[in-house]
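Possible regression after last week's pipeline update?

I re-ran a chain I had predicted before the update to compare outputs. Posting the input and the new output here so someone can diff against the archived version. Not blocking, just want to make sure nothing changed silently.
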Amino acid sequence: AIVTCSWSTGMDEAPKAKSHRNKQAGPKAVKKKRKGIKNDSKPGNQKAFTFKSAVRAARSTRRTLDKQSKKHHIPVVDRRPREPPPAVVMVAGPPRVGKSTLISSLVKNYTRQNVVDAKGPVTVVSGKKQRLTLIECSNDLSCMMDLAKVADLVLLLVDASFGFEMETFELLNILQTHGFPKVIGVLTHLDMFKHTKSLKKTKKRLKQRFWTEVYQGAKLFYLSGLVHGYYSKTDVHNLARFISVTKYRPMEWRSSHPYVLVDRLEDLTNRDVIRHDPNCDRTISLYGFVRGAPIKHKCTVHIAGCGDYPLQEVSVLDNPCPLPGQEKKRSLDDREKLVYAPMSGVGGVLYDKDAVYIDLGGSHAGRGVTEEPANQMVSQLHSTQGTMDTKLQYSVVELLKVS
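New output (post-update):
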């Protein structure tokens, strides 16, 4: 007789695990049946579990808040043209707080060009569809009021080693009177603190004070230390990116009235008339971007600090700082990063009150580049020191050479 035996080692196939069976009896199952909830559903305590998608929850929360805010505020229509004029960024603060250094650092971040002495408005291309006009506000109430009327964004500089000054509160009151544009705080001179603990306390105290004066959650940036006369690249880059994506709330009064922030001016009055009578009536030409409503011909304009004057002529000029083309790009080329600062001497051209100066590079500009003429006679003509008559006058005729 032949006996055949077979066995399994357990390596060929694993034993199947029992499937989970929901409870069909017991106090919990009876309670769920009474409520009409199936056993395979979610747990009953929904508050103990958070949302699954953070993006979806944030979107729904944002939508709910938008609905509530629209009930409180009437929607404002943006009446700006398709290619809007540059947004006016006002850099304000007490003396010796770093306003000129901040403007130079922002211009260098946007255009890679150096502006040593920023005078008057400085217009830069900050993005594919945006331009900015940076202007410094001096520590004067008249200058504060004039710039508060046209500013879209205010960079409020505060010396962290000293704190808020009286001029800062005066500026905030003036801004509130003129519609209160968007305000961004900037703390400087943070490198004066030697201990980290005191620095943190000062930051927290100034932030709370800034939020009290502006609004809760207002943006505050920190700038510390100078590298070759400029602020840190990382700090300036973060500030510049936030400025580029900032949206400005259009003000109704500005949208319905034309106004011009003058980039440069020229005095067209005859010089002989000015020499005979320095107090004569002047004829000046003002250049700048028209903002708000379209300006009309032969209308009366108000010049801040001077009064009302009739407008003789309005003409359209080429854009000195145009936006880049409509090509789809992730970033701008170097040739598209333009800067227009006629009062600061950028680009070798400086506009003064009565003249235009062109920088040729100084007396040493042509050194090192010598062009030798190909003809010997031409080279001798280049090296002549006097005229032909002068040479004939001092020339001597020798018949016999003296040995």
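Follow-up from reviewer: compared with the archived run. The chain has eleven helices and 15 strands. Marking as no regression found.
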